[in-house]
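Ticket #4471: complex job returned nothing on first submit. Input attached below:
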Amino acid sequence: MSLPAGAPATSTGLEEHPSWLRRLWLAGPYGWNQALTKPYVLIPFFLLAATAPFITQYFVDTYSWTGGEFWVRILVTCAMYASLALALNLVVGYAGLLNLGFIAFFGIGSYAYALVASDQLNQHFPLGWALLAVVGTSIAFALIVGVPALRLRGDYLAILTLAFGLIMQELTLDLDRPPVLAGHQFGPDSLNITGGTEGIHLVDPFRLPAWFPLIHGTALQSRSYYWIALGFLALTVFVMLRWRNTRTGRAWIAIREDELAARAMGINIFKYRLLAFTGSAIIAGIVGMMNAAYLHNAFPGNYDIQQTVFVYIMVILGGLGSIPGAVIGATFVTVVPFLLQQAVFAKFVIFSLILILLMIFRPEGLLGTVSIRPRKTLGGTLELFTAEPEAAGDAGVPSLGESAAELESTTGAIVDPPAPSTP
Amino acid sequence: MDYFLHNFPQQFLNGLETGSLYALIALGYTLVYGILEMLNFAHGDVFMVGGFLGAGVALLLIHGGVAGLPPVLIVLLMMLIAMGGAGLLGIGIERFAYRPLRNANRLAPLITAVGVSLFLESVVAWRVSPAPVAIPSDALVPARVVTVGVLSTPVMGLILVLVSIGLMVALDRFIFATQFGSAMRATAQDREAATFMGIDVDRVIVVTFLIGSALAGMAGVLFGLRFATVNFFMGYLLGIKAFTAAVIGGIGNIRGAMFGGLLLGVIESLAGGFISTTFQNTIAFLLLVVVLMVRPQGLFGQPVQDRA
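Support reply: We reran it on our side without changes. The output follows.
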């Protein structure tokens, strides 16, 4: 219009000084992750979440079977599964290890706590010692599985961890009676460790130690479990965030993105993998302990190997490698089944469809940063997934992202050099 | 020892029965892995759908008014329709769930496969039957027990082993003695080079899924006839066992899968008979762990270069 000739026609005021909202949009998943993990977002979020039980007590409760506890129950489950999703995110999203037996560690924590805090073995440890027992058991199992498994590559690791999960499941179901091997019975007739299909009932609730003000010594209420689970979630989020930017965190990302290059850089792959594997096992074990204490039982169905799928859906829905993503995914996957109580199988159909469609159309999930998209190596594979049209949006990153921005591609898309043209 | 000697042959025979089921299903896992290098966790559920298709045909023909059809014809129809249906299902899964992810990071197709598996199970449970469905196999196959010396087995057990072995031999010939088989082997070795040789890789992959799924469908019918019942979660444990067998034999190796299936069946049966029935499954999975530790490429596989 009235522009002088020669002025760049493409530059508009919008592009030069984009509003913060537009910059956020242009930043892509990486920028969103950055924005959502700022302290001024996280702290208000957790404070607000802590007040949630005071709000939900006014909600109309249509599920009489749980009484007024229904919404608190949802909140507790959300907080616990969010921690569990973060643990899986540590091992799959950060370190890129496909652990298909992950749920076994959740079960190990539950059973470890149930065994030291119930009448099953007539043990009633105080909270601190029980926690120690749970963490110790988790570490022991993580090392037993991890040390041999992590020397294997890719698919074999997945298969081995799957076999571990299956063995643990069989053991929890079968160890309610003394094992009989080749006609010889081990242990007395009354031997009953895991309670078989019944599980272990009447597990002790948490009792806080004496130095804790006001509520120590008494069995905790639902709400207190929610605050404990939320506190643990906050701790996990904090640890994950800090860990991500340490030498260890960068080593994980490097191994995940290119094992060979990481090895060439002198990274001890086995050590870092084992660290991620064990760390995730400890978090999962502690969540399992909270779950057993909250539900007052350790029931094998809760640690069925197929539950692994749900934790995977949580992490993938939110986006592999993303901390806010894992929390959002866990919340979604937990809340929706509660609302779909009546439709048991329809629920599974919906979730499996979500999983499949997500993998096809947005494999990196809501906020994911892991490059998981199809690579164009051969002709005729997929025209749908050519390079992102908004590649220009990368320019918006430095303003929001931090110095580590180069480590990960902004869109999670193709990092490889352009593929040769189709044959 | 006397007990052992007396029972060993019978346990061995029982093991061959389950083993040939494992082998039929394991072939599907191993074919797909050989060509696409992906673990098709939905395969066990294709087996389950095959069993349900067979059950549907049997119930329809027996109770559905087409009276007087000879049992042999009904059984043949069950097998045909189950194989065809399962094969089409396999092609469909490949087309809609796996093809879009063919060159993706390894995680993506694996998770999709788990999703497909959950989808098939829950759709069957939701729309068909959440309870086990009985198959009137007494009306279809003579319930007589064949006894030779110390060995005895129902007729259906014999049919199961014979049909499985026949199919395995046929598949082996197809892979190793026909032109299309050599195209499949070429694709397994190097997909890109196979394209340069003028092989239609997409077609090879479709046929692979067709064959693997059809075998699983047949296994479903044989299972249904042998045990007179099918249920929506039967593909889960049997699928994982078959997968174990494929890994033991060397995943990607066809003869390995056949042998691994039979071996796993026999070992499981012997373990159940002589060590502990309770820990039968645990022993099978421990065997898998041991094989992976000692020889991750399986008994028949060759060490492959990591293509990461």
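Strands of chain B lie at 133-134, 145-148, 151-154, 229-230. Closing as resolved unless it happens again.
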